[in-house]
UniProtKB/TrEMBL annotation:
Pfam families: WD40_RLD
Gene3D superfamilies membership: Regulator of chromosome condensation 1/beta-lactamase-inhibitor protein II
Keyword presence, Repeat: yes
Keyword field: Repeat
InterPro entries the record matches: RCC1-like_dom, RCC1/BLIP-II, Reg_chr_condens, Ub_ligase/GEF_domain
Protein name per Swiss-Prot or TrEMBL: RCC1-like domain-containing protein
Length: 419
């Protein structure tokens, strides 16, 4: 469908060579040691930022940040965001709904381009399926991309597509600590631990109690501006996550709350009759980190244990089978003797950090969303597109420490440093 220029091919070959000693010379130089991003998976629309549409079955260093150090990364549906140590945001990939936040009128970008209009230092970024967000150093929330269901929180009169970062004015005076973006909804946590949500309200994913009638019609519409989740009032939340049709959060006591009615058969609640408002997940140790995927959820405990539950398509739970688990199941394998401290869920694949990066689930060999032979595979980074039902280490070389990992629909990025 697309053709590559000669210059683009030369640059792509250079990037491939960066997997050898050359990338170590500029990343691992002293001082300082740079934080770098390595990407793999589906290459359609340039979501890997490697000047190419080709998929990658093994990690490839993004050379676009050769002269900068990265602070954070975030994978969306078919786009990727990068946050530098200096607080600047870059984006690459699909831009059909303005999710890249660039002034350039293009349907996709093959290389990371700086996001327009963010005049302040950015501390946190998040990417949804077709929308994006950034939080400034003083707690202001900016959003851009698809807004057909109010997922940008800019009010009912806002356009369906917002191609440049726009401040969520109704939150002025409220310090936003973090934002989590799902398929068509958004969740935010304030510095006081209060939780707001907005966007598509179907399936109860916002936690406001929207339910379906007997005929399947929603009793209430989506939320076009951020709304406090009433059932979490009095609960101080420290982190949150958003998936396809559900959301989750963890409070200061390490308790996990989850909401989303269409996932009720795949997840465990103390109160199964109230899945459209936050319900406490029972039988979990003190939890630190949570991530929501298509129809599965993972948490990391304070002791470094990993638990997963929900749909287990293609083995995305990592428990050694494809059986559905309706209650949290401890992920063993390589984690039985090592601790986990980060986890990220994609559509049907999962990644975790335990010293190294481990991935499992959908490799891409079953089903494709691409045309003209562009593979949908490689998101596990194991050199192939087959499924793995247990965690398997991504081979990237020695003396590399993984700091953060993010899964998109069918691509993966990890942030690392040499030691």
């Amino acid at each position: 469908m697309w053709s590559k220029s000669f210059a683009g091919m030369r640059k792509h070959n250079l990037i491939r060579n960066l997997k050898g000693e050359s990338w170590r010379r500029w990343i691992c130089s002293e001082p300082p040691r740079k934080r770098f991003a390595a990407l793999w998976g589906n290459g359609d629309y340039g979501r890997l930022g490697l000047s190419s549409l080709e998929s990658q079955w093994s990690p490839v260093v993004c050379s676009a940040f050769e002269n900068q150090s990265l602070k954070a990364i975030a994978c969306g549906g078919a786009h990727t965001l990068f946050l530098t140590e200096t607080g600047r945001v870059y984006a690459t990939g699909l831009n059909d709904f303005g999710q890249l936040g660039i002034q350039k009128n293009t349907s996709y970008a093959l290389d990371p381009l700086e996001v327009s209009g963010l005049g302040k230092e950015i501390l946190q970024i998040s990417a949804g399926y077709h929308h994006s967000s950034a939080i400034t150093v003083d707690g202001e929330l900016y959003m851009w991309g698809k807004n057909s269901n109010g997922q940008l929180g800019l009010g009912k009169k806002a356009a369906n597509v917002i191609p440049v970062p726009t401040k969520v004015e109704c939150l002025s005076g409220i310090f936003i600590k973090l934002a989590a973006l799902g398929s068509e909804h958004s969740v935010a946590v304030t510095d006081a631990g209060r939780v707001l949500s907005w966007g598509e309200g179907g399936s109860g994913r916002l936690g406001h109690g929207q339910e379906s009638s007997i005929l399947g019609f929603l009793r209430s519409t989506s939320e076009y501006t951020p709304r406090l989740i009433k059932k979490l009032e009095g609960v101080k939340v420290k982190t949150a996550a958003a998936g396809l049709l559900h959301s989750a959060c963890i409070d200061e006591n390490g308790c996990v709350f989850i909401f989303g009615e269409r996932t009720v058969d795949k997840m465990v609640f103390q109160d199964r009759n109230n899945a459209t408002t936050p319900s406490l997940v029972s039988k979990l140790p003190y939890s630190e980190d949570v991530s929501c995927g298509g129809y599965h959820t993972c948490i990391v405990t304070s002791g470094g244990e990993l638990y997963s539950w929900g749909s287990n398509d293609n083995g995305c739970l990592g428990i050694g089978s494809t059986y559905v688990f309706n209650s949290p199941e401890k992920v063993q394998g390589p984690f039985s003797k090592s601790t986990v401290y980060k986890v990220s869920c994609g559509w049907k694949h999962t990644a975790a950090i335990s010293g190294n990066v481990f991935t499992w689930g959908w490799g891409g060999s079953h089903g494709t969303f691409s045309d003209d032979g562009h593979s949908s595979g490689g998101q596990l980074g194991h050199g192939n597109d087959v499924d793995y039902i247990q965690p398997n280490m991504v081979n990237f070389g020695k003396n590399v420490k993984a700091l953060e990992v993010s899964c998109g629909f069918n691509h993966t990025v990890f942030l690392s440093i040499c030691f």
